[in-house]
Amino acid sequence: MSMSMSGSGGTSRLSAHELTLAYDDRTVVHELELAVPDGRVTVIVGPNACGKSTTLRALGRLLKPKSGSVLLDGAELASIPTRKIAQSIGLLPQSPSAPEAITVADLVSRGRQPHQRWWQQWSEEDERAVTDAMARTDVTDLAERPVDELSGGQRQRVWIAMALAQETDLLLLDEPTTFLDIAHQVEVLDLVRRLNHDQGRTVVIVLHDLNQAARYADHLVAMKEGRIVAEGPPSEVVTADLVRQVFGLHSVVVPDPVTGSPLVVPGAPYHPTNGADAA
Amino acid sequence: MSGGVSTTTVERKTVGARAGVRPAGYSLVRTRFGARRVSFLLHRRAAVVAVVLVLLLCLSCVAYLSVGESFVAPAEVLKVILGQPSPDELVVGTLRLPRMVVGLLVGAAFGVSGALIQTVARNPLASPDIIGVTQGASVLTVFAMTYGVTSFTVLPYLSVTGGMLAAVLVYVFAWRGGLHATRFVLIGIGIAIALRSLTTLFMTKGDYLVAQQAQVWMTGSLNGRGWDEAAPLGWVLLILLPAVAWAAYAQRTVSLDDSTATALGVRLGHVRLGLVLLGVVLASVATGTAGPVDFVALLAPQIARRMTRTAQIPLLCSALLGAVIVVLADLLARKLFAPTELPVGVLTAAVGAPYLIWLIISSRTAGAGK
């Protein structure tokens, strides 16, 4: 099931064309071209402030393009009613916040919002989706607990459950592992891969850890200063050259002993005996 | 479920191995209108609190009608309310009842208004009396008073206009490609201060008697209010009832952060504008009727939420609690220093100010409510 070359063979429901994004007058992303391959896990990676989160927000219509466009099924995102978009694209922002004292089940249920009306606040479909989302993220036992009382890892699983309950074909996650310890990071990323595998959902994740990106991506997009530097399967994209170009870091790229995917090992750390000749 | 006749069911979530997950604490109310299925989520604790508050309100009302310059036995009060002949008809039915109804409606309007504006601003400090709405109403009213307008049938229109204008001003200044909650509150506080000094200016310029009358109005007073004021207020509230029902649902959708809410397909700008507009109209109408009865809009929603422990501020309970607060406060205002009657706003402020301080001190974090 190897993906042919640069992903141009597959289909893409969500894409960006000549996308330029700016905050006030500061342009953050320059004329970006990106086609998100359907049914795959795309990871956007890059150093801080490279515009990766900004790009994701634009893909999820949270940010209006300064110029260029984002297309969903061929239609410009800006022309589709936001509720309609929410039935196709789910997005979990970087630090979502919940109202005080809200319970887990209540928060996950909010994911059903785009499928509800004020006179139709709860359907069997809603119940099935919420139950399923909570089971998949393993938060069913926490259903009646207030979200504020959970640990970071549990809370993140609850937020992901909310996004899952939305039952969209496309799922965008903005640095879902940022505040988690290593075990929970792996847990969340595994969960995302499983969702992609079991349900064929298209996932786009923004990560800053290149090794995690290489491990979990089908399609890797490396960004620097608002532009895409390289994209494709991690095995082709991740090289010592790219790491130096994108992150400005000297490294050795070896095969990951577990997965065989590229593993970036940074150059020798500072040490009194070799400190003098460190670049 | 046979077609034709609508069947309504209320379901409690049953905890069992195969039971589906529903929002904890809610009961599902399902019915159908013809072919259309209708379902509502009802927060059980909020429903219980609402019933308790209705009982409390009834008790407060009976107490209000009984106590005064002359005491009327509750049994006689009930007779008057039920329309049976009673020797206390004049005191209870003509003097106390209309004033109580005004207080009740004003309290409910302030309660809902505070709940809506606090929800949109995501800040328990944001209420119409903090962000300039009641001050806007005051400015125009006092201005008119100093130019000799004293009719209580004209003044309410002026307050509504003033309140709306102030809100527009706040909105315009706070808008910068979007409505930022904190900026909205801070701009509101600034405008409130500016308007208050403008009011003071008019009062100093106006003649002594007018100033005194304006002063009483500005503390919020139910003195001399009757059916003439209750009827229009009642009508306005009745007309706004469907909007309030919509708001109760819409409130739920704006309680998450902006990004998440937008990602869930909520048209944040529209919903917020709708909620604020409704809140401003309610506060302005109430202010027009009884003057700015301070702190009710601030207090009622926060206490109500603490009672119901819901994720968002409960509208119905806020309305009921607002009504209870104003009725009880006016009862005390009439009785405490009898025969001198205090403006009801003095009482609500006396309770509200310490509560405000407590609210700030007890916030777990500096940014609580955000």
From TrEMBL, chain B:
Where does it localize? Cell membrane
Spans traversing the lipid bilayer: 46-67, 97-117, 129-148, 154-172, 184-203, 230-250, 271-291, 311-332, 344-361
In terms of superkingdom, the source organism counts as: Bacteria
Q: What is its main location?
A: membrane
Record Gene3D superfamilies: ABC transporter involved in vitamin B12 uptake, BtuC (1.10.3470.10)
Q: Which SUPFAM superfamilies match?
A: ABC transporter involved in vitamin B12 uptake, BtuC (SSF81345)
Q: Which Pfam families match?
A: FecCD
Q: How the protein sits in the membrane? A: Multi-pass membrane protein
Enumerate the UniProt keywords alphabetically: Cell membrane, Membrane, Transmembrane, Transmembrane helix, Transport
Write out the similarity annotation. Belongs to the binding-protein-dependent transport system permease family. FecCD subfamily.
Q: What is this protein called?
A: ABC transporter permease
Q: Which organism is it from?
A: Streptomyces camponoticapitis
